[in-house]
Backbone:
């Protein structure tokens, strides 16, 4: 059982640590040695190191060495390793088991996720392994069992892998509650304090990430000084597009992307949406039919077995490429992958680095990423990314605070098991970073809500889920307990239906709203196959292979990714440099002809100017604004400015938006000078104006659907009997209206409106943007031609009104008109 004899425990740990690296013919990196000494000394902390640098071993081997040699506790669960993705669990567990066997520890490593059968889960609890690789949701399900404390009494360490992926959402809050609860269980049994460690490769606010991980405790930050070699290669258009437009260069670059297959062993081709993934896979196969069987597709809507098959082929090196989405962003080690292709702008530096790190996934190896713009102006984003890589810049992940829905779910989870004492649990919850500022008033409201349903729902027995039994809060109704266990988690997927062959396997799932629009015989592309729709029955879309390879591609909700504020700032810096003809990146130099035309026909704004272009056409009066803040912020700015202009001069607008600016189109000329004099971009009354212009009630109602699911107000159905989207939408909409009418102070309502402002409207960021724009000098230019900056926005306007064939004809006419003027 590891080193023994007359050596001290500390010496034994040192020997075991050294033994591991010697047996692998490796030499530990300085950050791995530092992590070992911190763990050996009993410290908790956060490890920050590049992807593929040995982060997992940097924590697991030291923990193994320390805990095996100390041998203070009897057999049982010693280390819990939390991973954000079930797909990562098996690979991590295999690597850990190899380490345990190599060092002759006798320890067992096992996986516990939602994919494990009920029988295997029960069997596992009878003889828990020393190391458990699991997810936040699976641990919360364990907490819902009676006498669950016994399973954690020997636990000495919890490691949260890919902490940055959990930190900025409600799964991070779940994880914080896990750490606090296990700490409390150990405190009550006088066991050694829990070691808490996190791993993160890409995070810009390490100190805050550490605070969220530690709760009220303290910890250290261990940073790798290793520089990960990352080479970015931009694939340029064959000729510079003077009038770029979104999507034009996308699929048309398929030959260049296909040519990369012969230069590399294996590629991951990242797209930003599932629809784009389907289109690129189809385009590559059509370009070269010999690729059939050599390339595959991977995204979150494909069936689990299909994704597992693709992952196995990746590991074994039996594929040339996989077209994928963020489903392969995280830590699975596909060593044959030696290069990455990014289709279109990734909209964030951290995401770009994360994806690049999927190649060269070994210490010392170079990561290679090819950037393929979908239109010429995306080269500005490429230039900003290059600068961020040179300067080591990464975005922040902001922890979620005071999520009442998650807290309600957690309390009902514990009440479903052994029950809880309200005073003890209040102290436990306040130890987390997420709820460190929770007041006694909010706590009492939550207790009242889970026991009565609150003011508006107290007449309905089904909402009184928890009762006081012998001094503890407890769920006594077995049906309520079962429904709750099936609903544990904070990932609320859009309602979807399974797709299955009439005589064959399941293929995956597609959103119900897409399938509802299909009639028998309609054809669509999914999972790389052209399918013919037969019928929808029992939330399953029954299909057969289509006779002709022609059909539409599904569109999934929530596919658009926003610019991070930090990347937007870098892009504005690149625009300013272009104005003054400063030498810079190869991407910006390539765009020089585009900038020359922009400067000749209009202006390029400096850092203290807001460019506004005005054009009159037969459609009406076009006004183009260029804040360079990304699509999501521009969508809100367009609505806000249109609302404020309407107050000054009654008129209606059409809008078009892209990542660089937005258009307002009206049948009346807009007096912008008057508008600016009357405070068009003031921050005064911003929140009221936002609420007025975006119909916050409808947005809050949509947000409430997620909150209602997490808090247990609605139940999506038993396995195989899921409720339809219309049913769930009607249920949550009715609940929202009831609470708004009869319980206006309900904290879940407050949370819904708060999340609309914080997440959907990005209130804090929008205030900063408006404040920045307010300080800029308006640079108003009237032009008779569509400039390189406004051309792609105008195309977005036309795209929503014309078929793809008519759109291309209209674009050619616009180009011709520009050249004649």
Residues:
């Amino acid at each position: 059982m590891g080193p023994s004899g007359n050596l001290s425990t500390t010496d034994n740990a040192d020997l075991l640590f050294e033994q591991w690296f010697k047996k692998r013919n490796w030499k530990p990196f300085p950050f791995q040695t530092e992590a070992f000494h911190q763990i050996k000394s009993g410290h908790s902390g956060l490890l920050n190191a590049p992807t593929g640098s040995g982060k997992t071993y940097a924590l697991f081997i030291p923990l193994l060495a320390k805990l095996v040699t100390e041998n203070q506790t009897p057999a049982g669960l010693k280390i819990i390793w939390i991973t954000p993705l079930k797909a990562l669990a098996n690979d991590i567990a295999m690597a850990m088991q190899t380490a345990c066997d190599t060092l002759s520890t006798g320890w067992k490593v096992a996986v516990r996720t939602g994919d494990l059968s009920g029988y295997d889960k029960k069997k596992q609890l009878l003889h828990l392994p020393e190391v458990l690789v699991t997810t936040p949701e699976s641990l919360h399900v364990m907490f819902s069992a009676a006498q669950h404390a016994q399973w954690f009494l020997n636990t000495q360490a919890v490691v949260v892998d890919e902490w940055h992926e959990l930190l900025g959402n409600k799964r991070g809050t779940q994880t914080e509650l896990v750490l606090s609860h296990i700490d409390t269980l150990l405190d009550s049994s006088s066991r050694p304090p829990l070691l808490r460690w996190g791993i993160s490769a890409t995070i810009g606010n390490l100190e805050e990430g550490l605070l969220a991980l530690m709760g009220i405790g303290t910890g250290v930050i261990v940073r790798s000084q290793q520089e990960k070699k990352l080479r970015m290669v931009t694939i340029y258009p064959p000729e510079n597009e003077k009038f770029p437009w979104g999507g034009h260069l996308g699929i048309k670059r398929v030959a260049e992307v296909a040519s990369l297959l012969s230069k590399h062993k294996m590629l991951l081709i990242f797209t930003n949406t599932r629809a784009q993934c389907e289109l690129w896979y189809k385009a590559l196969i059509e370009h070269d039919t010999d690729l059939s069987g050599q390339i595959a597709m991977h995204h979150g809507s494909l069936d689990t077995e299909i994704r597992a098959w693709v992952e196995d082929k990746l590991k074994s090196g039996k594929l040339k490429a996989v077209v994928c989405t963020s489903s392969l962003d995280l830590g699975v080690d596909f060593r044959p992958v030696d290069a990455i292709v990014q289709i279109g702008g990734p909209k964030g530096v951290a995401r770009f680095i994360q994806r690049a790190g999927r190649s060269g996934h070994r210490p010392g190896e170079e990561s290679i990423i090819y950037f393929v713009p979908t239109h010429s102006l995306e080269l500005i984003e490429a230039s900003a990314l290059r600068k961020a890589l040179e300067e080591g810049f990464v975005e922040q992940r902001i922890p979620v605070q005071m999520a009442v829905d998650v807290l309600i779910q957690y309390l009902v989870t514990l009440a479903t098991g052994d029950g809880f004492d309200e005073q003890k649990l209040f102290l436990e919850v306040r130890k987390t970073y997420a709820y460190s500022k929770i007041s006694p008033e909010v706590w009492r409201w939550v207790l009242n809500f889970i026991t009565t349903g609150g003011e508006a729902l107290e007449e309905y027995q089904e909402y009184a889920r928890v009762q006081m039994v012998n001094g503890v809060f407890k769920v006594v109704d077995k049906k309520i307990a079962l429904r709750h266990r099936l609903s544990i988690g904070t990932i609320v997927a859009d309602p979807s239906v399974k797709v299955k062959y009439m005589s064959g396997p399941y293929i995956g799932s597609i959103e119900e709203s897409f399938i509802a629009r299909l009639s028998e015989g309609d054809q669509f592309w999914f999972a790389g196959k052209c399918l013919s729709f037969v019928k929808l029955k029992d939330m399953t879309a029954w299909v057969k292979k289509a006779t002709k390879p022609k059909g539409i591609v599904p569109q999934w909700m929530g596919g658009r990714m926003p610019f991070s504020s930090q990347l937007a700032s870098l892009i504005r810096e690149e625009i300013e440099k272009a104005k003054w003809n400063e030498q810079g990146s190869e991407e910006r130099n390539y765009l020089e002809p585009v900038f020359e035309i922009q400067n000749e026909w209009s202006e390029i704004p400096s850092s203290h100017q807001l460019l506004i272009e005005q054009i009159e056409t037969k459609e009406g009066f076009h006004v183009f604004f260029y804040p360079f803040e990304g699509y999501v912020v521009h969508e809100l700015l367009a609505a806000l400015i249109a609302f404020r202009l309407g107050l000054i001069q009654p008129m209606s607008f059409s809008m078009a938006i892209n990542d660089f600016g937005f258009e307002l189109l009206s049948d009346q000329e807009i007096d912008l000078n008057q508008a600016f004099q009357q405070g068009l971009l003031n921050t005064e009354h911003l929140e009221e104006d936002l609420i007025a212009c975006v119909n916050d009630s409808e947005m809050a109602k949509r947000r409430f659907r997620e909150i209602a699911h997490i808090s247990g107000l609605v139940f999506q159905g038993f396995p195989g009997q899921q409720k339809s989207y219309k049913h769930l939408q009607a249920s949550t909409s009715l609940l929202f209206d009831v609470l708004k009418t009869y319980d206006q102070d309900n904290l879940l309502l407050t949370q819904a409106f708060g999340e609309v402002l914080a997440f959907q409207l990005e209130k804090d960021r929008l205030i900063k943007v408006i404040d920045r724009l307010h300080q800029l000098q308006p640079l108003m230019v009237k032009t008779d031609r569509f400039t390189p900056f406004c051309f792609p926005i105008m195309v977005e306007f036309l795209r929503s009104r014309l078929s793809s064939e008519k759109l291309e004809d209209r674009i050619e006419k616009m180009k011709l008109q520009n050249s004649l003027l």
Observations:
- The radius of gyration is 28 Å.
- The longest strand covers residues 529-537.
